[in-house]
Each structure stands twice: as structure tokens, then as C-alpha cells.
């Protein structure tokens, strides 16, 4: 089995020792992803949009789209902030929603309000 690793150059990748995504066994596994860039927005909705952009880029590099996602996990330090993100998430996944889990937990830095992790199936692997 071939394994392909996708690096995005995010600050935590080299510090912790992981990559943004791994393609293996017909699936794309995208690591937990927070808002990107040096100026992380404060609001959870803005952070959600930024994280989705990073995930979208990783999926595209692997040859996938949000419609190929079969599982998503949302992690938030405050579960009451999840509902404001729902419209963005519904728009991203549209008519092809994956199974989903939301976990309330501490994130790597208190400035982060949401982390998103996905697994997608490579097209043509049904």
C-alpha cells in the first residue's frame, strides 16, 4: 500500500511532528485543523471558516472535495459556540453530509475556538 503525506507548512506540523493529511488505503485523513495564519480571528465563526479553507486545500491536494468526506469531528473548548458554525458546515457539506461528532475539549492554544478533522474517500474507490 502506498502512503502519501501532504504538508501544509503549518506552524504545529514541524513542532509536533505530523502532516496535514495522509492518503492511505483509498482514504484521505486530514489532521485536526484550526484557523490558519498569523492573525487568528477571535470569533468562532471566522475561525471555522479559516479551518474549513485549510481542510478544503488539503482535500483538493489529495484529489477530493467536501462531498467525498465520510467522517468529520469537531472539537471546541465551549460547546455553546458550535451552533453559530452550523450554517458554514451545512454549506460546506451540502447534500453530501458525513457522519459527525462534536467533542468539547481543550485545544492546543486557548486562542483557538474550533478544530476540525475529516476523513474522505478518494473518488473512484467506492
UniProtKB/TrEMBL annotation:
Pfam families: Ribonuc_L-PSP. Gene3D superfamilies: RutC-like. This is RidA family protein. It comes from Sulfitobacter sabulilitoris.
Amino acid at each position: 500500500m502506498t502512503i502519501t503525506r501532504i504538508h501544509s507548512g503549518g506552524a504545529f506540523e514541524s513542532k509536533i511532528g505530523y502532516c496535514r493529511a495522509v492518503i492511505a488505503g483509498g482514504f484521505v485523513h486530514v489532521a485536526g485543523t484550526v484557523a490558519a495564519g498569523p492573525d487568528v480571528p477571535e470569533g468562532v465563526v471566522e475561525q471555522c471558516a479559516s479551518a474549513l479553507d485549510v481542510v478544503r486545500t488539503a482535500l483538493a491536494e489529495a484529489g477530493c472535495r467536501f462531498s467525498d468526506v465520510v467522517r468529520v469531528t469537531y472539537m471546541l473548548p465551549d460547546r455553546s459556540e458550535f451552533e453559530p458554525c452550523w450554517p458554514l458546515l451545512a454549506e460546506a457539506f451540502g447534500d453530501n453530509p458525513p457522519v459527525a461528532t462534536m467533542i468539547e475539549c481543550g485545544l492546543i492554544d486557548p486562542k483557538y475556538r474550533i478544530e476540525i478533522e475529516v476523513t474522505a474517500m478518494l473518488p473512484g474507490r467506492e
